[in-house]
User: Fold these one by one.
Assistant:
Number 1:
Amino acid sequence: MRAAIRNRISRRSYLQTPIAAELQEDIRAGVDGLNRESGLAFAFAEDAGKAFTSMRKSYGMFSGVRSVIVLKGAADLPDLAEKLGYYGEQLMLDLTDMGLGTCWVGGTFDRGQFAIPNGETMLCVITVGHVAEQSTKEKLIRHALSRKRKPVSQRLRGYETAPAWVLAAMEAVRLAPSAVNRQKPVFTYDGGTVTAAVDASRAMDWIDLGIAKLHFAEAAGGRFTFGQDGRFLKE
Ligand SMILES: Cc1cc2nc3c(=O)[nH]c(=O)nc-3n(C[C@H](O)[C@H](O)[C@H](O)COP(=O)(O)O)c2cc1C
């Protein structure tokens, strides 16, 4: 399993050390590459800490945030929320490889701090920056949110007949981040085919589906089609 999948955890306290110019270039190049591939309009905002200073909007969950990736795209792009999850998670794993701390943020930030062009929708941001050892406060927040994961048997229909490569990829799905750690996306193995679905009531659920599919695809080698019951295509 890719080390970034195994090692990533949500980080909410950042050091004051800015991201060096060279590393910023790498991040921007990564963002541009994913935008070209996906049709999304992600943007690296180097100095966006203001979105995390309002106690009313951020509940004091984060400290020292300076840079974020704004996750947005054309409002009429098909499967916008799911794609945002799929490509956003790809970026998050790359940022993890760069040694940076990250966290998906869909709720606890001040959306009003970002000027979003007409016709585009922003659903989330990913905070990004240098981190030290987890502070006590960070540990308490993660404990309160619970990092507990459901067993694979609860996330995979057809668990009893699934081959080893599917179970290995489901382990990567199990470790995926999800909004409020809900872990809603469910996979199905049936006669050699893998599909994924989510009982969606909010945009965040579709984002979680995209994230879960990316983890599966990354571990099993291949890609997923978008949409409810999208199929896995092994390379
Ligand atoms: C779509 C999405 C939105 C999230 N929004 C927030 C948020 O607003 N505030 C926050 O502190 N964490 C947020 N998280 C982080 C989750 O709480 C976290 O991924 C989950 O609790 C699992 O913990 P882990 O990432 O450390 O494995 C979000 C995660 C996802 C995937």
Number 2:
Amino acid sequence: MADDQTMFPQHIRALKPYVPGLPIEQVARRLKLPVTQIAKLASNENPLGASPLALRALADQPIDPSRYPDADCTDLTHALAAHLDVPADWVVAAAGSESILGIVASMLLASGRSAVYSQYSFQAFVNAVQRVGGSARVVPSPGFTVDLEAVANAIGPDTSLVYVANPGNPTGTWLAPQALEAFLKRVPSQVAVLLDEAYREYMPAERCGDSLAWLKRHPNLIVTRTFSKAYGLAGLRVGYGVAQPHLADVMRRLRAPFSVTQSAQLAGAAALADSEFLQRTAEANRQGLAQLGAALQRMGIEALPSSANFVLARVGDGADMAQRLQRRGLIVRPVANYGLPEWVRLSVGRSEENARLIDALETELQAPTDSK
Ligand SMILES: Cc1ncc(COP(=O)(O)O)c(C=O)c1O
């Protein structure tokens, strides 16, 4: 067998595996517990489940799995265009917004080109750049928010892409609309900006900028959103990017044909109308963030302010705490891979799950370390 040195290019050899939250079934098997006793608070999923309108659409319209899905995602694209009030040729549906992050990297990067992003950015930015052999200019983030001034200053002659997530993952911190708008004005027109809004629906209205209006003024802007979080459709894999046609056309050419299943297209289009579920989701999340925030403060645990459906908390040894919580049937996310070994990311769950997490954290923080 050829050795890896000769078979793979250097940038592929350097790829690190994406570390997802552990599946509930796996932890249940390990602990010999029923799945109902496991709380997964590790992947920022919707604890209320899926949009009821999406579920109804799936039940009402059986999918024939022997047929390929609509490669153009026609109905979903038009539903999105109507919902967002943009032309249909600005919309690119994909198998999760993460695949748009990758499509954009392969559209704009190659060896010798760079992307700029902030320290503590979503791991998928890092991987997307690396997969296509681009280099990264990583901007320090001492305050756990994206330093937009420093990001603009880091753009170099080899830079063709900037990734910014608002709110950020794993930080949960957000950017003021005025600051983002001023930043967009500073970015040279030949450098694309991908604004990742995976958690937008959780942001209080006054913190939300009008990113779709910015698209009209900035032909180099790409906005990505997803059905995985607030709409509760993570398992179906459907998200989208919005950009002016000169970018959207190329993105569509790079999208793997038939990658969005018919079920995902159908459910996504139906979920768009589920404003009642979105409101309920945002309200439950607001209450959950308050519940977790108050408890963490009471316990003296530092936590970052969050505009998303999770909170980053400094617990000492994050990997160890995640292990100990897992033994209690609570799956949370250690974030040492982000350079944050003292922190864990806690997704907001249902109120009883949050209460269980708070109790377990309290007990574990009091436990002597030799009881690990
Ligand atoms: C910041 C951010 N962007 C994008 C995604 C990708 O979501 P999906 O591919 O499920 O749409 C996630 C998922 O965790 C995320 O945290």
